Each structure stands twice: as C-alpha cells, then as structure tokens.
Amino acid sequence: MDRANLYRRFHTLLIANRGEIAVRVIRTARAMGLRTVAVYSEADQDAMHVAMADDAALLGPARARDSYLNIERVIDAARRTGAEAVHPGYGFLSENAEFAQACATAGLVFVGPTAAMMTAMGSKSGSKALMERAGVPLVPGYHGEAQDEATLAEAANRIGFPVLVKASAGGGGRGMRVVNSATELSAAIVGAKREAAAAFGDDRMLIEKYVQNPRHIEVQIIGDSHGNLLSLWERECTLQRRHQKVIEEAPSPTLTSAQRDAVCEAARKAASAVNYVGAGTIEFVSDGKDVFFIEMNTRLQVEHPVTELITGVDLVAWQLRVAFGEALPLKQNEIKLDGHAIEARVYAENPQKNFMPSVGRIKTWRTPAEGDGLRIDAGYRSGDNVSPNYDAMLAKVIAWAPSREEAIDRLHRGLEETDVRGIVTNTPFLAALVTHPKVRANKIDTGFIERELTTLTAATAAPGDLEWAAAVAAILGEEASAAQGEARSPWRTFGWMSVGRRERVFAFRAGEGAEKKVTLYYGGGPSTLTVDNRDIAFASKASEAGGFDVTLAGVKSRVVAVVEGHELDLRTRNGRFELHWVDQFGGETEEVSREDKIVAPLPGTVVALLAEEGAVLEKGAPILTLEVMKMEQTLRAPFAGVLKKIKCKVGDIVQEGVELAEIEPASA
Asked: Could you please report the per-residue DSSP string of 389-440?
C-alpha cells in the first residue's frame, strides 16, 4: 500500500478505546473539527466517552476479548459509522500489529506507526536485537525465540540473579516478575506467562538483569512521513508499584543537562532505526551512572500530559496531523522546555487492603477546577459504573509550575480537593506519596513505594475537635437539605431555633476505634458543642468557595464533607478523615465475620488453584489466584488450618462474595 493511502486527510475518527484516553482524544479531535465515533461494550453503554462522541457503536459483551480486543468488531464498527480513521489510544489494541494492518487493509488511516514498525519495535525481544545492531546500550539479558523453561532458566543463571522476567509484548507491569533466586524462577515464569497471555494474547518472555536501585527514564518522540523525527524531552517515572507507574514528571529531576541531551539523542537514534512515524516512547533504565535501553512503546503513553505541559505541544493534535500526511510544525531546536510538570494516576483501588481493585457505582465525583497550573484528565463522572472487566484507572491529576517544588505543591492541593465516593480510590495514598520528604528530595528508586508502603498507607491522625465539629455540621447540613431543600432555610445556619434551648447527642467512630460522643446545644443563643466535657462555641454555614465554614472557639476553618449514608469523608486543614456516624435511631448493622470462608472480593476469573483439598496451610499460604481488572489477585489463608473444600475450578467466572474455598482452623 502506498504512502498516500497510509497518511491522508480524513473527517471522521473512530476511537478504539474507552475511559480517560477516549475522552482525551475526543476533545482534541472535535476541537480540530473532526466527527468522532466511540465504541463501547455492553458494560459501557452509559460511559462518559460514549456520551461525548458524536456517534457510538456497540462492539459486544463486557469482556474485553469480546469487545475492545476484537479486531473484526472494531473494523466493522468503523464501516458501520463511516469512520475513515482509527485512533487506538493506549492499552487494548494500541500496540497490536495485526490491528494496524487490518485497518490499513480496510482502507482506514491508523493513527500510529505502520504494522511493520510496530512489529520491529513493539516486541521487547525484537527491539532489543534491533537496538543491539544500532549500537544503543542494552541491559544484559536474553531476548531469543526459544521459550521453553530450560532455555529461560539457563539464560537466567548465565545473567545472574536477581533477574527480571517480563512479557515480550505489552507493558504496564503486567506479565512481569522480579526473581531473586533460581528456586523462584519456575513459578515466576508460569505466573508471568499466564498474566501476559490474558492481557496481551502473547505469553512470550524475555529475561534481563535486574538493575539495583533503578530509575526509570523515558523520552517522548514523534516522527512524520516526511522523514522528520523529534524528541520532546524526557520524563521520569521512577515512582512505581509492581512495575506500574504511579507518579510521572517532566523533565527528570535526576539528569544533568549533558545527560538529558545524551538520552534524547539515543532515543532519536533508536526510533530512526525503523524510520519511525507517529508518537512513541523510548524507555531507559538508569543505575545512577549508566542508562540502558529497555523498550519502545509504539503508542501514546498514559503520562503524555506532563510532556504537553512543559512543551506547549498537544501530542494528540500532532498525532492527527501526522496521520493527515502533514509535516511536523516545529524543528528540534524549536522544542522549548518550560517549567516542571508532575502527574498522579487516580485508581479505583484500596491501598489499605493491598491495593485491591474497587468496583461499583460512583456516587460522588468532585475534582478541582482546571487552571492555575492544574489539569484533570478524567474518564468518569458521578453515576458512572466502574467495571471489574477493565483497567482501574479513573483519572489523572496533573500540575505544572515554574519549579518542581511548586508543581508538587499544586499537585498535592489538586489531590486534596479530589473526592470520589461510592468506590474506594488511592487518592489519599497519592497525596501522602507526593509529600513524602524523600520524594520531594528526589531520593527515590523504583522500589521506593514498596519499602515505604507502611508509612504511605498509615492511618491518618486521630480526629480532633475540628473534625468532630465538622462531622456534626455535615450531618445537620444533609438533614436540612433533605427536609427543606431551600437555600434560605434557617437550618442552613446551624444553631438557629425559634424558642428554647435544645440538645442533641451524636456518636461517631473512626475506623475500629471506640465511639466518640459529641453533644450539640442549640437555640436560645449561640450554639455550643460539648467534646470531652469541654464546651466550645460552634457555628457553621455554607461557603461560597464550596464546602462549608466551621467556626469553633472563634476560629473559622474551611471544611469539605461527603456524606454517603452513615459514612462521612471529611477534609480539614489537618488532612482527610473517614468517620462512621452511629445513628442512635436509624439502627446499626454489623457484618458477620466469616473468616473460615474464602470468598471472591470482586468479580473475576479463577486462573490458578495453588493448593489441594486436605492440604495443611500456614497463615498467609496461597490458595488460588483470581484475575481482576486485568491484574492477578492471590487469595491466601487468613489463619493456619486445613483446606477443607475448594468450590471453584480454573476458568470459572465468579461474582463478588461467592464462596471459593473453606478452611478449618488448626485448633479445630
């Protein structure tokens, strides 16, 4: 197929993705005057990206392999909607050479590299061989075709432990394991292959030396069909958990100017090896002295906004212009670096429970207003459903400022002003992470989060007078709103009463702590709260800036509260607090503990049984593995005992709360 057919002007763009990236592409495409087409699964029929697009086409059932990963259905959706081009986003089919070729064969413009370029650089093994010939420095490793366990074991022993076993296709930390000794290798290979096959449909592995105390550096590149190839500076993505990036920033606070120039030159050299066209990322690992090529991602990256903020370039717009067949609008020396940008990924997951994914309906979605150096890229709204079938990322909070320190402060404020309820998110964890002294001082490596996990997921400080007062104010506000529904209701100012003086007792609980009773006295004069036998002057009213102002002992404080039934999420100057309101009249229900039952924490697929019925298990011993949100979750014995019964088999699709196994305590 000639180049004119590969790159040409089009007017209708289908976005073969969902969530935040689909929304991101739709916004730029529409701003450029293009008609946009969304695709969706049965689980996503009411999703935000579907509502935003001009048209939308149903792909199929909720499971990704039956919808977003089904090439024939995506191509058919383009035909049915009159789309002339396809933007793959990231994830799903974005680095699938078969999909890129199918688009070209169908006469569709693929917004990205050709299938040949993708094949050459999209495979970790293939790209390493290519880079080796091009003279780009590599981490010592094995990237051969032979995939039998004996060959992989021999390679690992030759390289020397610790080694990194990872999927040749794809990325995002899926299909990746750090192996510290030969005894761990077999299980790591089996698990990585299984996870890679589920995520990418390809279980080929490569093995490379695990770099100690590594830093992750990557360079954004983009090329056009006229032979122009640019690098748009570098990003640092060292803050990771389980090889999944958590915080990304640009430029790298680690590199010197000379190192920056060198790594950008190496990235251009790597992309030039295949005459690359489109946006891509060249990834490197640094041991603090040398920088080694890891892989190339032949697509847009999740963290592309930080590059956009320091360069002023809309990368999606440039992708589309390249696909039109246009030349890049700037030369290399015209790409300026301005200030510092940092991004945090907001996920539906619970850091307090080993980052278990959280699913369900979003009841409250509040993010700060964009502007003043703050950007929010989101794919969800209030009322949207978070499905267990897809990646758990909900949004990205991105901040720009003239300096790194100011950018971190702006990001922290943005995270503190983000409230999502109905599901659990990692927002408090992110806020703790970006304000950690070692993160501010850039004294980190890719293992930092794992080492500091206890500190980063620690419970907040105990609530004080301000928090108890805020809780009272939040409940009164909810009740007043429900009862009156009018902005001028006298109950909007707490403490108003026509005659007499009344009292009301509130009881709260923070976590597993004891109940805390707070008494409100109101009417017939100023309101007061009694906390720990102390009387404190109290007032509260709605704030024009959002939330409400609590005045306690003459000091006014801005408070934000989200109330979901008996659960209160408070944000005060002292941090975030989650309280439970013990309603003395509404009744309290307590969950019955069933510790002898192993139940599915979320909907998922059973992918491995790790113990047999009758086995004697120590506390923490693995029993089975579920695949949830494209990641594996291992369920373990809550105590020492005997595995009495397994109530599932590999391949079963199970719903939340379904009993999977039963354990008999050792004491029995």
From this structure: TS--EEEEEEEEESSHHHHHHHHHHHHHT-EEESS--SHHHHHHHHT-HHHH
Assess contact for 654 and 648: CB atoms under 8 A: yes
State the 10-residue block means of pLDDT for the chain, 668 residues long: 75 98 98 98 97 98 95 98 98 95 97 93 73 81 88 92 86 82 92 85 88 92 97 97 93 93 92 94 87 90 98 98 98 97 96 87 92 97 92 96 98 93 92 96 94 87 91 87 51 45 88 86 88 93 78 91 84 87 58 61 86 90 84 84 93 86 82
Full-prediction pTM beyond 0.85?
A: no
Tokens of residue 632, six digits: 């594996």
3-state secondary structure of 262: helix
User: In terms of Cα–Cα distance, which of 165, 156, 155, 153 is closest to 191?
Assistant: 165
Distance between CA atoms of 583 and 567, rounded to whole angstroms? 11
CB neighbours of residue 601 within 10 Å:
18
115-122 and 97-105 helices, crossing angle to 10°: 180
Of 299, 375, 410, 571, catalytic: 299
Q: Cα separations (Å) of 192 from 48, 185, 189, 628?
A: 33, 10, 5, 15
Separation CA 435–CA 433 (nearest Å): 5
Running DSSP on this structure, what letter comes out for residue 629?
T
Q: What is the largest CA-CA distance in the chain?
A: 88
- How many other C-beta atoms lie within 10 A of the C-beta of residue 654? 18
Task: Confirm if 283 and 236 have CB atoms less than 8 A apart.
Answer: no
What distance lies between CA 23 and its chain's CA centroid? 15
- Terminal-residue alpha carbon distance, the chain: 72
Residue 299: active-site member: yes
CA angle centred on 164, ends 162 and 165, rounded to 5°: 130
